Amino acid sequence: MTGSQTQKPTAFLIDSSVFVFRSYYSMSPELVDEEGNSNHAVYGFARFLARFVKQTQAQYIATAFDEALTTSFRNEIYPQYKANREPAPEDLKKQFKHCQKLAKLLGIAVYADDSYEADDLIGTLHQTYANRGHNVCIVSADKDLAQLVRPTDWWWDYGKSKPLGFNALTDKFGVRPDQVCDFLALAGDQVDNIPGVKGVGVKTAQILINHFNDLDNILTRHQEIGYLSFRGAKSCQKKIKDQQQAARLSRQLVKIVVDAPIENDDIYKTKANQADLVAFIEHMNFGPMLRRELIEAANI
User: Fold this and answer.
1) Per-residue pLDDT tens digits for 147-161
2) Contact 36, 162 (CB under 8 A)
3) Within the chain, which residue ranges are assigned CATH 3.40.50.1010?
């Protein structure tokens, strides 16, 4: 993924919340900083980031964090958006701030906003770096972000799978990456409380998208659905006809913004201030192995 001599280096865009949450729920909460505060999420995120940087030798790298879970512009469109999610525990909120600080100390660009979600910040950076001639690797477990992937890009659920390109994602989701948004508009998404079209599941959504190519075609040609040869085609036709508004609303919620206001879009990795990094490591009570890995990552 480093590209040839003529190809610009890959830009790595990390959906950080995924890796912070994973650490919070999988690491021992007995890990504490100098003041006795839990820091297991920070520890796990630090280990992930150090190893990721070492493995990829990333020159262009950004981390995006969610701070808009209840204040996103999507909540204004649809107040129930993500309303099924429990608020983050207080100790996790504090650890998120430490994770942002650590990324900055490693010379990695950090993005967070209270109107735009991490997906939108990644979408905007993706657009910027795609326009500048970079291939992009989106580091996430979130299928929503697959909609950004071009034939020259990757989607990487780091630690769980290898990087997946356009064709591999098509196999994984049953629709092309550029169809993922319309697919979710039909099937909905329980995790984010996206309604979709009630009664249309994943398999039916795949059939419809593969046959009609996109949501607009499905909605304008819904009378043709009844003639398709899948079980429940006739009742599906009525569901699509009756719930066009829900499908359009769902697409609006799922579609990633690619022009969010970002002050500084420079994600070139800089050399860290080692003294500040060491002070942070000591405050966090990280052991010698992680300390060594972080200092090494800082100097890549």
Assistant:
1) 999 999 999 999 999
2) no
3) 11-174+260-290
Q: Where in the chain is the domain with CATH 1.10.150.20?
A: 177-254
Which CATH number applies to 11-174+260-290: 2.170.190.11, 3.40.50.720, 3.40.50.1010, 3.40.50.1820?
3.40.50.1010
Strand partners for 10: none
Two structure tokens written together for 218: 């499905």
pLDDT in tens, 83-113: 888 888 888 989 999 999 999 999 999 999 9
Query: Alpha-carbon distance 153 to 136, whole Å?
Result: 5
The answer to pTM > 0.85 is yes
CB of 40 closer than 8 Å to CB of 23: yes
CATH of domain 177-254: 1.10.150.20
264 half-sphere exposure, CB direction, 13 A CA radius: 8
> What is the chain's alpha carbon radius of gyration, rounded to the nearest angstrom?
21
Listed in sequence order, the residues at least 6 apart from 41 whose beta carbon sits closer than 8 Å to its beta carbon are 20, 21, 23, 24, 27, 92, 95, 96, 99
Q: Name the 3-class secondary structure at 136.
A: strand
